[in-house]
Each structure stands twice: as C-alpha cells, then as structure tokens.
Amino acid sequence: MNDGHATEVTVIENSWIPMPDGCRLAAKIWLPADATDHPVPAILEYIPYRKRDFKAVRDSEVHGFFARHGYAGVRVDLRGSGDSDGVLHDEYLPQELADGVEVIRWIAAQPWCNGRVGMIGISWGGFNGLQIAALQPPELQAVITVCSSDDRYTDDVHYMGGCLLTDNLSWASVMLSYNACPPDPAIVGERWRDLWFQRLEESGLWLKTWLEHQRRDAFWQHASVCEDFKAIRCPVFAVSGWADGYCNTVFRLIHHLDVPRKGLVGPWGHKYPHMGGPGPSIDFLGECVRWWDRWLKDIDNGVDAEPMLRAWMQDSVSPISDDRPGRWVAEDEWPSRRLQTRVYGLTPGRLEPGGDNVVTNAPPLEIRSPLSVGMFAGKWCSYSESTDLPTDQRLEDGGSLCFDTQPLEEAVEILGQPVVELELSADQPQAMVTVRLSDIGSEGTVTLVTYGLLNLSHRGGHARPEPVRPGERYRVSVRLNHVAQRFPAGNRIRLAISSSYWPLAWPSPVPVTLTLHPGGRLLLPSRPLREADADLHDLGVQRVALGPTTTLLVPAHREWTVLFNLATNEATLQVIDNDGQWRLDELGLTIGYDVTERYRYANDDYATLRGEVVNSRSFERGDWHVVVATRTQLTSTPTHFHLDATVDAYEDDVRIFSRTWNESVPRDNI
C-alpha cells in the first residue's frame, strides 16, 4: 500500500560526504520540501548495497516515506561500495565505524537538519546502528536495528554453537560479487574505471579471513556490542523474525541494555517487516515513525509506555505451508517473571513430563546420522522465499534419535529460548550435536519449530575449545533459537537429535557416533495467557512511499532442489536465487543478478563434501555494459578447509580482469 501522506519531498540524487583522509562517500537524500527553512531530524541508513541500482527501489520506498513524515532520509554507500571512494576490505572494520561517526556529524551540520540523527538498518545496517551507537556520537539519539547481532561470533552468518555455517560460504560469495562491481560513471565520472580496478585488485577474499577465526577471538569481539552493553546510551528498537537467523539478538538487547528499548519479533524472515513473509506483514515504517517521533521530536506518543516485547505467537501449521497463522502477544519486561519452565525428561523414544521420571537404568542410545540429515532444513537465515523454509521433518527424523510426548491434553505455549541438557559421549575428538524441536500434527506431519547446534569441542565456551576425549561422558547444554509457539491439544512435541546437519552446518572432520546416556532433559519456557494481549494496538498494513518506475525484463527465478542420484550415490542440494533483470526507467539503467548454490556429497563420504556458489551481476546503459562473475568453492579434509575462488570482470563482453585464489586453512577444533 502506498503512503498517502501529503508532505512534498525533494530528492538529492547524489551528495558527497568528505572524510578526514580525503575519501568521499556517496549519499542519496530525501527531504521534506521545506526542510531548508524548517530543519528536521535525519534518519541514516549506512550499508554497502549500492544506493544507485540494486537497492534503489527499496530505498525510495523507505526513505521517501520518512521524508513525507517530516524526516530527512539519508542513504550512504560505505567506503568502497556503490559510488563511494575507496575499497571495502571486510565487515565493520574500525575505518567503517569511524566513517559512520563522520557521516552523522556531517548530516547534523547540514542546513536541512536540526542536529538530531537516528539510524536504521537491516542486517549490515542494523549491525552498524548498534556499533556506531556504542561509539556515542552525541548527534545519534535513537536506533532501529533489524535482523542484526550484538555478538558477531555466536549469532551471525559465520558460526553457530561453534559450528561452521555454510551461509558463511554463501555470504562471502555475495560480498565477493558486490565488491567486484564498479561505481556508476554517471555519478563518479571518468574515474569510474580506476575505482573499479582498485576494488577488483584490493578487496580480497573475505572467506579466507573468516575461516582463519574459527573460535571466538579478538577478531569477533571487535564491534560485538555485547562486550559492553553499557556503551549504548540512546534508545534502541530491536526487530527480527522467527524465520530470520538473528532473532536471539532482540532478547539479549532488551535484557541487557539500560536505555529505553523495545523488541518486536514477527513471523518473518530476513526482510524489513513491511516487506516480510512468511505470515502477515505490518505497517513497519509507521512504527518507525512513532519511534522517531518519540525520541527525535520529543512527542509524548506513549511508545515508551508500551510493553517491552511484542512477539508473534505462532500457531501449529503444516510443514509445507508458507503461511504463519498466530496472534500478537506481549511482555512488559524481559526476562519475563511470568514465564515458567516446563521440564521433560528424555527416555527411550519419549519426552516424559516433569523430568523427574527419567529411567536412570535405561540403556544408552546411539546415533550416527547420515549426511542427508539437514538437506530439508531450509536456510539458516530465510529470505522469506517459499523455497528456503524447512519442510516436513520426517525427511530428517529417520537419521535422528527422536523423543515424543504423548498427545497433549491441553495446549502448550512457549516464548523464549528452549534448552536441552544432555549426558553424552562421542567416539571422536571432534563432534557436533544438533537438536531440533518440532510440532507433530494430528495427521503425523512434523513441522520444525526451532533448533540449536553445539560443537562439542566448544562445550566449555567458544574462546578456548578443547577436543572431546572419546568415550568420556559430558554434561552439555544446547541452547535453541528463541521462539514463540503454540502446540495445540492433541498434537505432540518432538525432540530430534542428530550428529550432523549438512548443508546448514559443515560436519565434523570424520563421521561420529554419539551416545546419549540417561539423564537428558528438555526445558521449555512456558508462557501463561495474558489478558492484556487483546488490547495491543493494531500494527496495521504495509505502507511505503512510491519508488522509481521499473520495467521487468527477465523475471526472478527461485528453486530449492534436492537430488539423490541412485546411480552414483551422489546427493545435491541446488539453490537457484535469481533476481532476474530489470530497468530503472528514469536512469535508463538495466541491472541483473543471478546466483546458484550447490552443496554435494557422495556415498555418505565426508571427503566428498563440497559447497559452490556462482554469482553474476550486470549493468547496462547506452554503450556502457559491465558484467562481474564470481565463483567460490569450499571443500575439506580431516585437517584443512580448502577454498577456491575466481573473479572475472567484463566490459563490452571482453574480459578485462581475472583473479583466482587457491587457499587452505587448518581446521581449529571444528
């Protein structure tokens, strides 16, 4: 739905923001038409995703909306991205954060700004809002952080529970592709080619850097605001979705920050909530304006009197459904003192209520999962496409140890972080355990609710891993992702445990047999009903500003295919995620983006594991035609990760640059 607000908007297509070292950052600005005569607060989004082309439509819808509601919307390309000068060498480096502080100072000093600035962003932009807030620039007075993390090791695209995520490969490939793109000659002029070659030659292979830090060391501690929550002194609105990879952050922020704060978690994936699915989208930009009105305009609109947490309580649903029915619930504080811990004991095949009825003389249970467990898990961080959500978990449960409740006599609702305590041993020094919590419907289908991973070498923490002593028993806790879920009466709750989860996470060096000993428990954060939930204010329906007109030339194409070749015993998960090709009509600029990911193994042999991502981006206007193509491949041996990557750049169908990497990184207790 388009926003019908009457305020007229002036758009500045490009403005240069000077940095102290002479570098210039490129900004696009949306202003209320009278902002020069009547200065307004400004909202900054500071990301590397190219304001001129790939994010042009989305940026106009968001920042145009803010401008129509009395704010200056400012979209800045990071140093080395889009039309900005320089080279981008990695995520969240000190230079990037220092630049961000300078950008805020520049914005506050402009004649159309009254000196008050907020930051908004999803993913990278959400990280930057938190990280720059921790640097305490006085002009920054409120933040909205969406799908981001306070801890770059435990809750980001790279590692989970000390296990290597294959999204680490996928995301590194995305950024390799972005970093190979040129600035637009229409903005930077004749120097566009020199800037392009500088990026191609100097940006580097980020995947190798991330693989060189397999434990939580100083590399990940940098810019992780959980190291000092008290450094953040401005109000924070934290947002995520249950299908997103970053929902845990919302709960830690509202728990640990000592500033006005609010949390919102819906059913969505990794998108702004006005664009998001599965489940209903909301008038998120309207909610943002309410937040800005309170903290940047000092309007007493009651935002700070609302519950600290608002979450979508998901109903039971078919595992092949793209819908997420449910209702909004709220808690006034977090952790909520209203929550109770519901305990189940693990006995052979069963979850027994109470946890005190564990049969201590029950025989140990063993599991050595096939590599196929995980092929139907969906993506660590869903982008809300029907292709990347998990499907019926019966396809996974055959290679897992499963523990089920009896059919529930009454509905059970949970909100928070489930925890599984296990007494286990392993037959190898490097091992991992995956725990999945599912809802078994009355017809027998199994829908994934949440899950957790633990690298057993990290059982004592992520900073100093220690190998497992084969055969020795350990008591470990596996923390699952936060969730809100209603299990209706008649359904059953299932806990499934496996020794691998490929390709969501890279497996251990060699196959592992896990032995579960008696004494395991499942702890669920049970939530009693709250009558006040019926009075929560309506979050509305999507509103955005009008974006630029576009012409679709090649439609998007999404597929998520699992192929088992019984002739060769090879299994392949192929992901096609093509955005297609479209023209920004006003600019006469045609852009395109295609990506294919493949994850393979053969004969259940760990030596055959292979992940590969191929990206292509294209730009065309008049006689300017540029294509960048990248390919990244990751394999492993018991001792090393091996990565191969290429970047090829074409101008007018002639390859004018090519670079290849062949690198090896030792495995570090992973």
UniProtKB/TrEMBL annotation:
SMART domains: PepX_C
Keywords of this entry: Hydrolase
The UniProt record lists the keyword Hydrolase: yes
Keyword Phosphoprotein carried by entry: no
InterPro entries found in the cross-reference section: AB_hydrolase_fold, CocE/Ser_esterase, Galactose-bd-like_sf, Xaa-Pro-like_dom, Xaa-Pro_dipept_C, Xaa-Pro_dipeptidyl-ppase/CocE
Pfam families named in the record: Peptidase_S15, PepX_C
SUPFAM superfamilies per record: alpha/beta-Hydrolases, Galactose-binding domain-like
UniProt domain Xaa-Pro dipeptidyl-peptidase C-terminal: residue ranges: 289-547
PANTHER family, alphabetized: COCE_NOND FAMILY, PUTATIVE (AFU_ORTHOLOGUE AFUA_7G00600)-RELATED, PEPTIDASE S9 PROLYL OLIGOPEPTIDASE
The name this protein goes by in its record: Peptidase S15
Species, as recorded: Litchfieldella qijiaojingensis
